[in-house]
């Protein structure tokens, strides 16, 4: 049975482990933290990612805990609609909407689909040196492929491809959370240097997010809630209702990074073996399109398909010689995934800049209509 070592048990690593296991691989997942992910806000899951979850055998488990999103709009602070977003246009087939799911619920359902004891928690894998040699312990230990899924600040990406490919600060800081306010419409509201988003959620609650221009690491001296109330004072309903009930405990804050420049490859093969990058380690993107986790799921399903043994073969290890067949499957994965994910990285950053525009907002509104 071919063996994969996976570094990082976030969404990308866990989903990849599920996909590879389903196609006959033995997997070992190393996760530096000592427990599964239990925090985080909601994630939008687009139809393409839902299709990937179906392929991984957990699509219905996701549908059971997620909230389908209705149509929405992009607005100005006074509430005027800049663009209407159609739920139907994002739909793969009837009923297949963008779904909003708690990150914790997604992590739980993915973890439940793993073979028992697949994850070694508290196992931080540091690169032992530059290039593939830095993974020798795992490749020598018998892994046919090492899957690098250690997130946007990936130390293994740097070791494999060089310091040139780093996480880059976008100039924007993101805040988000969930409050007990009932809302009915998805809205994202764009003002100068900041924006506010509302997504109706389960049981009369609302998932909200905001972003603002800020230097990395900057935190509001008087607390995030007071800062948010000041920055978004007078913005259209129901932003005020959300801010009214907000407490400091409701707010999660992250500075927003993407990977820049785009990677020249998502795979590294050599005499000592093969490594492949998935998820944010490969294509960390800003959350502006809500696609980072979605693309990690599509990576996982695609990689599993590329590394699956030919259906016609009846042999136990149908991949034959790992160095030959695995390398060919990885090359296919790179061809299928690099270009579309890098396009999304560029688009996401562009949307983030456009949303925060301080000048030429008339031109922006025109562009919005065209983009729609
Ligand atoms: C504000 C915000 C909102 C977002 N909203 C959405 C959304 O609506 N929809 C969407 O699709 N995406 C969204 N995203 C993006 C999404 O969160 C990420 O794309 C996704 O979490 C990436 O998953 P990952 O597994 O690649 O990386 P991570 O989640 O970062 O996981 C990496 C894992 O690797 C582990 N690790 C790191 N180094 C090592 C090591 N050396 N050894 C062992 N383990 C290691 C880490 O502990 C971690 O568990 C959002 C992101 C942000 C910041």
TrEMBL record:
SUPFAM superfamilies: FAD/NAD(P)-binding domain. Signal peptide: none annotated. InterPro entries: FAD-dep_Monooxygenase_BioMet, FAD-dep_OxRdtase, FAD/NAD-bd_sf. Transmembrane segments: none annotated. Pfam families: DAO. It comes from the Bacteria. Keywords: Monooxygenase, Oxidoreductase. Coiled coil: none annotated. Residues 5-54 form the FAD dependent oxidoreductase domain. This is FAD dependent oxidoreductase domain-containing protein. It comes from Promicromonospora umidemergens.
């Amino acid at each position: 049975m071919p063996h994969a070592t996976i570094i990082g048990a976030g969404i990308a690593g866990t989903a990849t482990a599920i996909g590879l296991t389903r196609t006959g691989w033995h997997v070992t997942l190393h996760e530096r933290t000592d427990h599964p992910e239990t925090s985080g806000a909601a994630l939008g899951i687009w139809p393409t990612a839902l299709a990937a979850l179906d392929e991984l055998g957990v699509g219905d488990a996701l549908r059971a805990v997620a909230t389908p999103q209705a149509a929405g709009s992009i607005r100005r602070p006074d509430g005027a609609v800049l663009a209407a977003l159609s739920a139907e246009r994002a739909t793969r087939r009837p009923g297949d909407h963008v779904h909003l799911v708690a990150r914790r619920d997604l992590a739980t359902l993915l973890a439940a689909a793993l073979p028992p004891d697949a994850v070694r928690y508290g196992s931080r894998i540091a690169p032992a040196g530059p290039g593939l040699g830095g993974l020798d312990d795992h490749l020598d230990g018998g892994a046919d492929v090492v899957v690098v899924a250690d997130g946007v600040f990936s130390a293994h990406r740097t070791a494999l491809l060089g310091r040139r490919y780093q996480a880059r600060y976008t100039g924007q800081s993101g805040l988000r959370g969930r409050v007990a306010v009932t809302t009915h419409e998805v809205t994202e509201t764009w003002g100068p240097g900041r924006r506010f988003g509302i997504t109706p959620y389960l049981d009369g609650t609302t998932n909200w997010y905001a972003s603002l221009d800020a230097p990395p690491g900057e935190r509001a001296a008087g607390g995030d809630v007071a800062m948010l109330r000041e920055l978004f004072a007078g913005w259209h309903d129901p932003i005020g209702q959300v801010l009214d009930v907000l407490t400091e405990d409701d707010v999660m804050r992250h500075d927003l990074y993407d990977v820049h420049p785009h990677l020249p490859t998502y795979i590294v093969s050599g005499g000592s073996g093969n490594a492949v990058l998935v998820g944010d380690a490969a294509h960390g993107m800003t959350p502006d399109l809500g696609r980072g986790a979605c693309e990690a799921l599509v990576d996982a399903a695609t990689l599993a398909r590329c590394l699956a043994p030919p259906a016609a073969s009846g042999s136990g290890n149908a991949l034959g010689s790992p160095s030959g067949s695995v390398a060919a499957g990885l090359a296919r994965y790179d061809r299928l995934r690099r270009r579309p994910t890098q396009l999304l990285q560029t688009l996401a950053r562009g949307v983030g800049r456009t949303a925060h525009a301080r000048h030429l907002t008339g031109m922006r509104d025109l562009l919005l209509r065209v983009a729609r």
